[in-house]
Design brief:
Radius of gyration of chain B: 12 Å
Structural class of chain A: mainly alpha
Number of helices of chain B: 1
Radius of gyration of chain A: 18 Å
Oligomer: heterodimer
Number of domains of chain A: 1
Shape of chain B: elongated
Distance between the termini of chain B: 35 Å
Number of strands of chain B: 0
Order of helices and strands of chain A: HHHHHHH
Largest sheet of chain B: none
Largest interface: A-B, 23 and 17 residues
Largest sheet of chain A: none
Number of strands of chain A: 0
Helix content of chain A: over 70%
Strand content of chain A: under 5%
Order of helices and strands of chain B: H
Structural class of chain B: mainly alpha
Number of helices of chain A: 7
Distance between the termini of chain A: 28 Å
Shape of chain A: elongated
Chain lengths: 163, 31
Amino acid sequence: MEVVPALARWLHFMAGIMWVGLLYYFNFVQVAALKAATADGTNAGITKHVAPRALFYFRWAAVVTWLAGAALLGNQFVNAFTLSKGMAGIGVGAWLGTIMLINVWVLIWPNQQKILGLKPASDEQKATARRVAFLTSRANVVLSMPMLFFMAAGWSHRAIFGL
Amino acid sequence: MKNPLDSLYGTVISGLILTAVLYLIVKNILG
């Protein structure tokens, strides 16, 4: 059944690129764009038309990435998550990805719903939600860097890195 | 003290530092 991990790897990469690509879009592009757009009164284009669509693909790509990653680990799933000998590197990557997924669904998405007006919230609650969603999103950028190291170069070139 | 996550540079540098720290832990303790 070599075809299952092969397809899982393909799906894991596609969904992961969409997830982390949108994460980098939010942090490297949209935050600054929204600040400038708010200043000249054109922010509705982003908040009404772009952000909800981007968040839809962002949060569901996160789920697909995690599930495809779990399928890819297969019978090594437990060894990875328990950081067994020889699996600690990919295991740390898997844990970082899991924490990022939890951040998306527990902290980023519920707060974004308040910010975008999809869930009722006072101005004060919106301000808090904006800060929590922003910092969690930035934390996910931080976590994505070691996650990608351990899952990509740290895994395929683990002998060079002594992992 | 400013939160490093408020700037993109601070965020990327934090990511690099975390990568180095986790790498050393995995290589020397868990690996």
